[in-house]
Each structure stands twice: as C-alpha cells, then as structure tokens.
Amino acid sequence: MPATAAPRIDRLSVPDASGHFGPYGGTFVPETLMAALAELEAVYRSARADPAFQAELRHHLSEFAGRPTPLYFAERLTRHCGGAKIYFKREDLLHTGAHKINNAIGQALLARRMGKKRIIAETGAGQHGVATAAVCAKFGLQCVIYMGSVDMERQALNVFRMRLMGAEVRAVEAGQRTLKEAINEAMRDWVTNVRGTHYILGTVYGARPYPEMVRDFHRVIGAEAKEQILSREGRLPDELVACVGGGSNAIGLYFEFLEEPGVRMIGVEAGGRGIRRGEHAARFAGGKLGVLQGCKTFILQNPDGQIELTHSLSAGLDYAAVGPEHAFYRDLGRIEYAFATDDEVLEAFQLCSSMEGIIPALESAHALAHGCKRARALAADKIVIVNLSGRGDKDVQEVARLLAKRE
Ligand SMILES: *Cc1c(COP(=O)(O)O)cnc(C)c1O
C-alpha cells in the first residue's frame, strides 16, 4: 500500500462512546434488553481494567484452552503456492477446535461476575455452541443452546457433544431453520429471562457492547502472532489473511496490527456458488446498509429490505450480515475484502490436508484459498500470515459427501 493512501488509525478510539463504528453498530434492541446491555457493558469495563480478572482470564486461556497457539511455517504449501512465506496462526489447536473458546471463556467469567447462573447462546455450525457448553460445564453454569433444526441435522455430532457436556439444545423450527432464526430465538429467551441469564453471543456482532467486547477477547490472537513473527523473522508480516463470518477471528488477528501501515489486511468472505442473489454470503460483494439483530451494518437483502437467502458450503460463514467494525475499516480502506468460492475452498481444504498434515475447518479454508493466491502474487522475501481459525474434523463427512457427488 503506498504511504499516501494509508489512513490514520486510532484503534483504541473505536467504537465511539455511543457504540458506533463510524455509521455502523449501535444498539437496535427491544427496550426490555437495554438495562441488561448497560449492566453487561459496565461489568465488562470494570473487568477489563481489573488486573485480577485479566490474570484469571489468562490462566483459563492457558490451562483450559491451550494458549498460546503456535505460529507455524507452512513450508510445503509455501513452495507449492510459489512466492511469499506462508505462516499459519494455529487457532485450530485450541480446545473444542476453534478460536471461539477465547470469547466463551471471557463471557463466562463476566456472567459469574454478574452473578448470572444461566447461559444461553445461538449456534450455526455448532462450534460456538460446543465452546459455550464446555465453559458452562467447567464453571458450573446452566446452559441452553438455540440451533436451527436444519443445522442440527447437518451437525449432529456437535449436537451430541453439547449434550454430553450438559447443555440443553433447543431446536428452532422457524424460517430457514438455521443461524438467523436461532439468534432470534435466543434474543426472545433473553428478553423473557433477562434477570438471571447471560447471552454469550458468538461473534463481533449484535448490539453494543458485544462487537467491542468479543473483539477484545480475541485480541490475544494478534498479540501472540505479532510477538511470534518478530521473534521468528525479526520483522512484521506483509499481509494478514483471515476468513470473515461475523468477523471475530479476523479482527482478533488484525487488531494489534491496525496501526502498522506496512501490514496489509484482507478478509475473505464466502463466495459460495458465485456472486448471484441467494448463492453466496459475501456481504461486501452485494450487501447494503441495514439493521439486523441489534446493529447497523452491511447486509445481504432484497430490494424491499428483506434478508436475502445465503449459501456457503461452510456453515460458520453462512450469515447475511457482517460485524460493524469490518464495515468501518473497509470504508477507511484499512482492511480489504475478497471472497473464495466453494470450489476454491474444497481445493484448499484438500491441499492443506495433503501438503501440511493439517485438516483445516472449511471456514479457515477460505482464508487458505485466498492466502495462497496472495503468496503467489508476492516475492519470496515477503511474509503472509493466514489465520487457521479452526480444525476440520467437524467437516470431513460433509467434504466426503461433496467430493463423492463430483465423481
Ligand atoms: C465460527 C467460525 C468462523 C466464523 O466466525 P468469525 O466470527 O467470522 O470468526 C470461522 N472459522 C471457524 C473455525 C469458526 O468456527
């Protein structure tokens, strides 16, 4: 990026005091939730400034989740792609299989601080549900997970995992019977039971303070990666690549680098079967400004403002809206966005498995597909870090089915 084009960034001043990321974000919820959101924000701000809370969080991230995760040099993939060095940030090695546990631990500790003993959460692919069920078991909290009945069928193994860890999984039968409907149901539960219940939202989305709070619980990803690349290579990376569903693993990696003008950042959305209405989930390649489930942001919608159907082979990226902080940094030109199609993702999934001995989550394979393209476009002395947000064990059955269909 030429120096003149680099926007001035003050990452700690985002969001502003009203919970806005420029024109995005805000608090679009029923009045009955305003008191609970205000309480959450107050408790979060006091916890963030409390060294004892931070020490306890670090302790659980280390002992329960398995942090720090390695920064891994993907030597054979680097040679195959042919260009810049490719490193993986290994969030796939975390307990329960993805970065989601960083946020689940943080919010469970906040629930305890608020004296709330009942936890609810939404889940699509089931990864956030599994992370939430795990922390609830560990901290002795009651746990109810809302999940669309279509997703429950597609992700039966994760449903079993959650139940094994003591969670009650409630099937949602409305609408498309997937993630969006599960969030609606979780919000309805929260409105009804708000006094003793905390809602652990799973990404950098929703009403204030969720986008900022969830981001802060994932900042550890980039903080570690920065230290690791400096000690390994003696310099900062040239590019960071991460997949973007709501956007939590991506902003978690980017945050510590936002004020480093030499580091280019690219978020990769789900291109599905291509950029045609209803065939993808690339909000920046067809979305418009709107309000959905608590915040104002880029949303895939039809001309009447109804939420568009989405498609991706990876359930974790299959959502019509994107976190407000991403929309903000895209406007500034600080973060760029691309997409990977289902076909490119399947190829990257197999390539990473066979070349590195690492089976990536289908979500992470979006970042891999684009990361390989970027590496190829760069010289051999450049460095690209790809966020490996999760492992692919949950996806092997689905991939086997998709590959069999092609033969
Ligand atoms: C949930 C999930 C994602 C998408 O969520 P973000 O908030 O965009 O990070 C990506 N990768 C994996 C492995 C996930 O489980």
Keywords:
single chain; alpha/beta; Rossmann fold; 6-stranded mixed beta sheet; 4-stranded antiparallel beta sheet; 14 helices; 14 strands; binds pyridoxal-5'-phosphate
Describe the structure.
- With 407 residues, this protein is α/β, with parallel strands linked by helices.
- It has 2 domains: 28-62 and 100-210, 3-Layer(aba) Sandwich (Rossmann fold); 67-97 and 218-406, Rossmann fold (3-Layer(aba) Sandwich), CATH 3.40.50.1100.
- Helix content is 43%, strand content 18%.
- It has 14 helices and 14 strands.
- The chain has helices spanning 34-48, 51-65, 75-81, 100-114, 127-139, 149-154, 156-164, 179-193, 210-233, 248-254, 324-332, 342-356, 362-377, 396-406; strands spanning 20-21, 24-28, 71-73, 85-90, 118-123, 142-148, 168-172, 197-199, 239-243, 264-272, 288-292, 294-299, 335-341, 383-388.
- The strands form 3 sheets. The chain has a 6-stranded mixed sheet with strand order 3-4-14-9-10-13, with helices on both faces. Strands 1-2-12-11 form a 4-stranded antiparallel sheet. Strands 7-6-5-8 form a 4-stranded parallel sheet, sandwiched between helices.
- A hairpin with a 2-residue loop joins strand 1 and strand 2 (24-28).
- The radius of gyration is 20 Å and the shape is globular.
- Bound molecules: pyridoxal-5'-phosphate.
- Residues 98, 100, 127, 203, 243-250, 316-317, 361, 363-364, 389-390 line the site of pyridoxal-5'-phosphate (PLP).
The largest sheet is: 6 strands, mixed
Radius of gyration of CA atoms, rounded to a whole number: 20 Å
Bound molecules: pyridoxal-5'-phosphate
Q: Give the low-pLDDT segments.
A: none
Question: pLDDT average, as an integer?
Answer: 96
Share of residues in helices: 40-55%
List the secondary-structure elements in sequence, H or E. EEHHEHEHEHEHHEHEHEHEEEHEHHEH
- Taken as a percent bin, the fraction of beta residues is 15-25%
What characteristic shape results from the CA principal axes?
A: globular
Total helices: the number is 14
Largest sheet strand order: 3-4-14-9-10-13
CA-to-CA gap between the ends? 43 Å
Strand elements, count: 14
Label the structural class: alpha/beta
Q: Please, how many domains?
A: 2
- By CATH, the topology of the largest domain is Rossmann fold
CATH architecture of the largest domain: 3-Layer(aba) Sandwich
CATH class of the largest domain: Alpha Beta
